Structure formats: structure tokens, C-alpha cells
Amino acid sequence: MISALNNALDDIFGAMRLRRVWIALAHEDIGDQHRRTTLGPLWLLVNYLAFVGTFVFVFQPAGKDAAGYSAYVAIGLMVWFYLMEVISLSVSLFKREESFIEGTTLPLFVYVMRLTVQSAIRAGYAIAGCIVILLLSGSELTMAWLWSLVGLLLILLATPALITVFAFTGAFFPDSEFIVGNLMRVGMFFTPVFWVYNGKDAIQRYAYQWNPFAYFLDVARIPILSGQFPGNAFAVTGTVALVMWATALLLLGRYRRQIVFLI
Amino acid sequence: MVSIKLDNVSLIYKLHEKLTLSAPDRRLGPTGGKIEGAGRKQFVQALDSVGFELKAGERLGLVGPNGAGKTTLLKVLYGIYEPSGGSVAIEGKVDALFNINIGFRREATGRRNIVLRGLINGWSEAEIEEKMEDIIAFSELGDFIDLPFKAYSQGMAARLAFSVATALDPEILLMDEWIGAGDASFQEKAKRRMDELAEKAGIIVLASHSESLIQSVCTKRLTLKGGRVESLTAVPVKPAEAASASP
Fold it and tell me: From the centroid of its chain, how far is CA A251?
């Protein structure tokens, strides 16, 4: 166990020393994806606004507070899209990085951080769009927003661990790429991204209480929408993050040298 | 002192029957070698009791049929594969050229690719800046250096890759056989740079199927077969080279 931990930390610290590599590669990735387009990365903002607009237009409950629902969906979609992208892309991470893994001695965590930065940059455009929607919908800028910021930082902190765990899962179990992809698509309907938990419906109750993603959404959403500190959501999100980090360290320490033979 | 010493090195890895919902198949890993065992307990013996020693200034040519273990051995020397047995002792800074396109972005210019490749190699920004013009000059890409990499021919890509890999005078350079893909003038230029590298007390290990390339570049030949060393011999010096070397 100690040797696995040391191995994992070697890999992580090695990657941190090479931070200029993963930051540069992540920026190139984003640039390449939007090269020769008129709007460039601003398409990320347009896509986000289009989704929020569509969900608000279609699902806004009749007779309810329209502005409040817009804010609810805007934060929900911002966090959900981030999680969905991180998890879906993680499963095929080592396969996509095959030529690097077979041709260089870069630490595996370099690829993890490359995807983390990529996802964070994309989320940055969604966050910008979300702030605009919140201000337009009349949400007051209060100190409680800082709790949302802490919640987002907690999610960001959990991201490298999530990526590592799902990347190893994908390397050992290639079918998981499709299983996870489908689960994340379906998961959107079982997570209170655009529907509001009313505490009565049995299916909604299970989908809310036993779905860790619901708590990831709440750490960012509740402080802004209700001005309260969501202690329970922070506790669950923090626990999930810790479990994920422990699993990630174990996988990285034990199997990082095996990945080159698996991909 | 730059040196490489391999003692009884073996590389055995489990042939993973990946967890999959599809029908089981015989998935082979990235190396060649012999497959041993049966059923779910199959192993690939990619290298078996490989041992040799290289000192500063020596250039080793790895030869052998496909699947003999040449590329695997290079990757063990580079540290990509961890040997299952034996010991690898390497003194000196190692650089490798296995795949021309690694680290090169199709959409980025040659100049930007030099920066990215430098970062991947672990160079500082100052080192990249300092070497930039030398790399561009050696690669002879001229104005193409500011065009996207995707506009380059295979030979131009090879020139850029070689220029970057040898720019910081690696003490040990590992190369797969792609160097034989360039045109004659590039090969001649590359050979001169490798000579300079070896004269600076470096070590070169080159895997190739080209006997003429081995003869012109290397001082030793290691023949591998089925992951084992079949022979380790000195490459005879060509008469012309011997004459030029004598006082």
C-alpha cells in the first residue's frame, strides 16, 4: 500500500513539474477544436445558452417563477455538462493518448491534467453564460455566492480523481466507454438538472437522495438560489471526492506501469 | 560517464483478456515475443535474458526479424516498459525518436511544434528559445516553419523531428528505424549529426532492418531473435572510413 502510494505520488509530482506541457496541450486542444470557425471557442458559450434557453422554454413549470427556474436550470446545466464531459471523455482517455503513452515517458497524470484543464476551460465559457443568466434573471449578488464558488472549487478538486478512476476503468474494461456514455445521457433525467425535487414523488426522492450527482449540483446551486449553506451537499460531495482520490491513488500506484500493455 | 549496462533483462507481461462483453479473442499486446501459457493465463515473453554493455562513443545497431524485440528493447532503455527481471543501469540523459509525429500538432506551425516538443522533452522556455533558430536552420524548412505541420511532407516532418530530438545534444539517443525513411541528403546530414553526437562521447542505439544504415552508422550489431540475444558483434569499419581515421 505504501509503495503504491509512493508510486502514485511520484507520477503526480512528475506531472506537476511538467505543468507547462499539459497547460499548453489543453490550450492547443481547445484551439484546434474551433480553428477556422468564425466564433472560435465562443461556440461553447453559444451552445450552453442554446441548451439553457431550450430547457427553460420547454420545461418551465406553468405559473411558477420563470426567472427562478432560469437560474435553477442555468446552474444545473453548467455543472451537469461539466461532469458529463469529464466522465465521458475520461473513459477513453488512455486510448486517445496511446501514441504518447507508447512513445514517451510522461507521467500518466499529465494526461489526466490535460483533460482537467480542457474541461475547466470549456466550463469557463459556461460559467460566463451562467453569470449573465443569473444577473438577467434578477438573482442578487450576495456573499452566499462565495459558497457556490467553494462548491465549484470542490468539484474542480475532485475532477483529476474522477478522470483517473474512469480512465483506468476504460483501460481495463473497454466496453465501459459505451456503458458510461449511455449512463451519463440517461443520468441527466435521473438528476435534478432541469426538474425540481418536490420531496413527494418516490422516484424523484430516490433519484435525489441516492444520486451523488444531485449533491454536486446542490453545492453550486443552493447558495445562489436560497442563500443557504448546503452542509449536507458539501459533506456528500467532499466524501465522494475523498473516496475518488483514494481510489485514484491506488489505481495510479498499482497499475500505472501496466497501462502501456493494456491500451 | 555515459554508459548503458543491461544484465539479464527480461520482460514478461500478462496477456490481458480484457473484460469485455464481446466474444473473447486473442488480444496481443504492443510488443512482439513469445506467447506462453494457455487460456486466461497467457504471458508474452517479450525479452529474455538480454545483456550487453555500451560505453561512451559506441553506436549499437539492433537487428532481427519483426517481433524479435528491437522496439521493445528500445522502450525498456527509454523507461516506457519496466523490465520484469534483471537490471538496467543507464548513466546519461536519454532522448528517443520512436514516432516522428509524437507531440506534433497537425494544425500548429512548425515553430509552435518545436515549443510543444521541447516542453514534452522537459526543456525550459529559455532552452527552447535558445535552440529555436538552430533547429529551424538544421531542419532546412525555411518559410515552411510558419506553416501548419499538416502541410509538411513525411521527409519534412522527419527533418523537424530529428532536429528537435538532437538539438540539446542528448547523451544517449534511441532511434527506431524511421530514420531510413528520409531522403538521401537528409540521411547523410542526420548521419553527420549522429557522428558528432557520438564524438561528444554519446551513445546511439538504432533499431533498423536496413543493413546499409547499420553499417554506415553503428559500431556494434546486436541481433535479436524471439526476444533473446542471438549475437553481439562489432560492425566492420568500411575501408574508406578506416583510411580517413588513420593519421
Answer: 20
In a domain, B30, yes or no: no
Residue whose cell numbers read 435525489: A208
Please report, for chain A, the start and end positions of each structural domain, with discontinuous segments joined by +.
2-262
pLDDT digits (tens, 9 = 90+) for A67-121: 788 999 999 999 999 999 999 999 999 999 988 898 889 999 999 999 999 999 9
The DSSP code sequence of A18-58 is: THHHHHHHHHHHHHHHTTT-SSTTHHHHHHHHHHHHHHHHH
Residues of the domain holding B120: 55-82+92-245
Summarize pLDDT for B210-229 with one digit per residue, the tens. 888 888 888 999 999 989 99
Alpha carbon of B227: minimum distance to chain A alpha carbons (Å): 17
**Cα B116 from Cα B111, distance rounded (Å):** 9
Among chain B residues, CA nearest to A21:
B119
Q: Does A178 touch chain B (CB under 8 A)?
A: no
Structural domain contains residue B19: no
Could you tell me if A26 and A121 are in contact, meaning their C-beta atoms sit under 8 angstroms apart? yes
- What is the domain count for chain B? 1
CB contact under 8 A, B99 and A260: no
How far is residue A75's CA from residue A78's CA, in Å, rounded to a whole number? 5
CATH number at residue B105: 3.40.50.300
Cα separation, B103 vs B116, in Å, equals 7
In whole angstroms, give the CA distance from residue B113 to residue B106. 9
**Listing from the earlier edge strand, what are the strands of the sheet with B41-55?**
B34-38, B41-55, B3-14, B85-91
Structural domain includes residue B192: yes
- B40 domain-assigned: no
CA–CA dist A72, A70 (Å, integer): 5
Residues counted in chain B: 247
Whether B29 shows a pLDDT value over 60: the answer reads no
The yes-or-no verdict on residue A45 having pLDDT over 60 is yes
> Do the Cβ atoms of A103 and B79 come within 8 Å?
no
End-to-end CA distance of chain B, in Å?
Answer: 27
